[in-house]
Design goal:
By secondary structure, the protein is mostly helical. Helices cover 69% and strands 0% of the residues. The chain contains five helices and no strands.
């Protein structure tokens, strides 16, 4: 587990569908230690929205998906 993430969020992320872009973002951020707050700030959304994406409860819009894919690419470098 990466520093800064609750056990609940990590558990929800692990059990969510890996096909969801929000879940993929969550896994990438957990792996690289990027906080929910930092993701929210970088994408211009609330922490609650990011939490819901990470846990697979909500899916990002098509416009946001483009920004998320770019962020994932940046984090994976």
């Amino acid at each position: 587990m990466s520093y800064g993430y609750s056990l609940n969020l990590v558990s929800l992320n692990k059990s969510a569908s890996a096909r969801s872009l929000g879940v993929k973002l969550g896994r990438t951020c957990i792996k690289h230690g990027v906080s929910v707050a930092e993701v929210a700030d970088r994408l211009g959304v609330s922490r609650q929205i990011v939490y819901r994406w990470f846990s697979g409860k909500n899916k990002p819009s098509e416009q946001m998906a483009i920004k998320i894919e770019k962020l994932i690419t940046q984090l994976e470098r």
